[in-house]
Amino acid sequence: MPGPGEPLFLQKDTDLAVALAMEERDACPACGMPKAWCRDSEKGRARFAVAEDFCWSTYRLAQHQEAVDKKGERPPAMVRAYQYATKFRPGFEPEIDAGLNLEEA
Hints:
This protein is mostly helical and 105 residues long. It has 2 domains: 11-47, no CATH class; 56-92, no CATH class. It has 4 helices and no strands. The chain has helices at 11-25, 35-38, 56-71, 76-81.
């Protein structure tokens, strides 16, 4: 903690905040990469490969929303306003360190 009369933020803190703001400003809202990379017409498509993974959590969310939408019980604006999140069913919770490879560290 800074002492009395000391600045709350150092110049390094300000520099880092400005750098982060610039990086976020230059990031593509669709893919999150710097616009200079994802919008480069010279290298364009050749630069990127597609990686495909499957997320069961996202699938369950989409499945639930599709079922709700089909019922038609909620007005469209209400359907768009709902926010969904998945949670683990009791007895299916993973170990807290699963996938972290902590035994190798």
